[in-house]
Amino acid sequence: MQLTLGDLRITLLNDGYTWVDPGGAFGLVPRALWSRYLTPTAESLVPMVHVCLLVESDGQKIIVDTGHGTKITPKVAANMHLERPQGGLLDGLARAGISPQDITLVIDTHLHGDHCGGNTYYDADGQLKPTFPNAEYVVQRREYEDAMHPNERTAATYFPINYAPLVESGQMRLLDGDTELARGVYGHVTRGHTPAHMSIRFESQDQHALFVCDLASYAVHF
Ligand SMILES: [Zn+2]
User: What is the Å distance from ligand 1's center to 205 Cα?
Assistant: First the structure.
C-alpha cells in the first residue's frame, strides 16, 4: 500500500505477521468486546501484522522500523508463529526496487525486538553488520537507556545486538525529545507502550499523517 502526501511518498512494507496472546494487546478488555473485531484461533491466538514504512522525501530514503530481521532462530520464529508469506522487510524493499545500500535514514520508534531486529544481521562469516550500511540510525536516548538496562518484565524483548553496536560505532544517533528527522518527517515522544516510544508525524503541502506504531496495534484501539 502506498500513500502520497505532498512531496512525501510513504509505502507500507509488511515484515510478516505473528499469532499472539490477546492479553498483550487487550489487557483487561474482556474477550466479549475484542472478539467482535478479531476472531481468535482454537488456541486463543490473534494475528498481529508487523508493518515497516519506506518514506521517500527530498532524495532521502527512510525506513521506519526494521521488523524482526533475520537473526532470530527458527525456534524463536516458531514460538511466535512468525509467518512471512511475502518474505520480510528486505524482500518488500527489493520489490520496490530499493537495496539496503540506498537507505539514508533508519528511524526506530522503539527498541522491542519486533521493531528493530532488522537493524543488524549476521553476514556469511558470522559477523554482525548493519543492515543499512549507508544510513544514519536514530532512536530516543531514553528508549536506548531503558533497552540497555531492562528489568525482569522487559528483558525478553530488548536485545542489545539490535542496537548497541550501532551506538558504539557512532552510526546510531540518540535523540532527546521531539525532533525534525528529515524534511516533513517529525519524531514525537508518545509514551505509554514504552516510556520513550516515538510516533512519526508527516507533513507536506498542508497534508498530514501520523504513524502511531505500538500505541495502537489494531484499528479498534483508536
Ligand atoms: Zn513494542
Answer: 31
